[in-house]
Amino acid sequence: MSEPKKLFIKTYGCQMNVYDSERMAEALGGSGYVETQTPDEADMILLNTCHIREKAAEKVYSELGRFKGLKADKPDLKIGVAGCVAQAEGEEIMRRSGLVDMVVGPQSYHRLPAMEARARGGDKVLDTDFPEDDKFAALKTRPKARRGPTAFLTVQEGCDKFCAFCVVPYTRGVEVSRPVAQVLDEARDLVARGVREITLLGQNVNAYHGTGPDGADWSLARLIWALDGIEGLERIRFTTSHPNDMSDDLIAAHGECAKLMPYLHLPVQSGSDRILKRMNRSHTAESYLRLIERIRAARPDILISGDFIVGFPEETERDFEDTMALIREVGYGQAFSFKYSTRPGTPAAERAQVDPDVASERLSRLQALITEQQRSIQDAMVGRELGVLFEKPGRMPGQMVGKSDYLHAVHVADCPAEAGELRRVRITESGPNSLAGVLV
């Protein structure tokens, strides 16, 4: 038998890209590839890119430049660019980098085996279509190897919101939801291979409206209740949500479904109504705050996470102070915050930009407030008993590390628990980025 070919995948950006990289590796497994952790060993290198961060395309070209010597030493090495940068700039990537053999968008990665075969034949292959065939159905068979205790599962892709700063509608397409049966089959398969916690993924995951076995469109809440019935699945999470899609049944599920964890990532982006309108967010600061009240009424202990963009075009100091006021009122256990950077082709890129130094100073103030809130909520966990799903050994001998119900990292010394066990832990210490405790 011939030696298996080696595949190296570097993943950038969101959890959905992590999921996509897993599925791309599975797709190429049928062509004789096994994954390697180093590009030096690879027969194929795939960069699964993200277009959200600043200068995303330039970072891809910089990464490609590092492989120039490797390609010279191994002429048969094939290099591919996948993901959202590939979708947005596929032809330009092919034009600028002679190293690249394949460019594949996020809706076409089920075609990778055929693309790889063409590339082996000497072709340069570009596929950034939005095909009608279902990539998930094409990749429905997954290897039966054991998995870690947590897994991502994409249930929805694309976005119809067209926020003024965002490229997702152009790189991922319109909102599409996977059929319920397909999602449940994949979830059962993951659980059979050792997964205890599943995080449902989507650009707007709470806009999920997949077709159910009854022929009706199911909401995300109804899908969660179906997942709740899978024996062996202990925890359910979902991300990322839009405030406008937090339906009544989804809010109720947070208070009624024991497997749905008390953690919600609900981006608001700004606390200024003027800026929210310019962002085309279609909600106000007040409507967001009232939504948080309803969610906390259903689940009082829920930890709220958010996203913030600082220095959005035309943002004034008053607009920024409105954002700070909203943060103080909500009290975030976690948040992701960024200084605005332009995305070519988006409406906001054409507007008057905020001075970068002003934006940096505002970001520092916002992050200081978020850090203060995050640490306060984390410190309040000391003395409580939390559920912890252990995932792996820690750095110290005998130590195990897992995640709490609230997604905090938890370390337990001299721990007899194994990866995949869900145990009660009494929290004894709060560190800068994690908790420590003892088994109950």
Strand content: 15-25%
> What is the number of helices?
14
Q: What top-tier CATH class of the largest domain fits best?
A: Alpha Beta
State the CATH superfamily name of the largest domain. Answer: Methylthiotransferase, N-terminal domain
First and last CA, distance: 52 Å
The major β-sheet equals:
6 strands, parallel
From the spread of the alpha carbons, the general shape counts as globular
Mean pLDDT figure: 92
Which spans have pLDDT < 50 for at least 5 consecutive residues?
none
Helicity, as a percent range: 25-40%
Structural class by secondary-structure content: alpha/beta
- CATH topology of the largest domain: the name is Rossmann fold
How many structural domains in the coordinates?
A: 4
Produce a short descriptive summary.
The chain has helices at 15-29, 56-65, 68-73, 84-96, 112-120, 135-138, 168-171, 180-192, 220-228, 248-256, 273-279, 285-298, 317-330, 356-379, and strands at residues 5-11, 33-35, 44-49, 78-83, 102-104, 125-127, 150-154, 156-157, 176-177, 197-201, 235-239, 263-265, 303-310, 334-339, 385-393, 400-404, 409-412, 422-430, 435-439. It is an alpha/beta fold. It has a 6-stranded parallel β-sheet, with helices on both faces. Strands 15-16-17-19-18 form a 5-stranded mixed beta barrel.
Structural notes for this entry:
The longest helix has 24 residues, at 356-379. Helix 2 (56-65) packs across helix 4 (84-96), helix 9 packs parallel to helix 10 and helix 10 (248-256) runs parallel beside helix 12 (285-298). A 6-stranded parallel β-sheet has the order 2-1-3-4-5-6, with helices on both faces. The chain is built from 14 helices and 19 strands. The protein has 440 residues and is α/β, with parallel strands linked by helices. It has 4 domains: 5-127, 3-Layer(aba) Sandwich (Rossmann fold); 148-260, 2-Layer Sandwich (Transcription Regulator spoIIAA), CATH 3.30.750.210; 262-379, Transcription Regulator spoIIAA (2-Layer Sandwich), CATH 3.30.750.200; 385-439, OB fold (Dihydrolipoamide Acetyltransferase, E2P) (Beta Barrel), CATH 2.40.50.
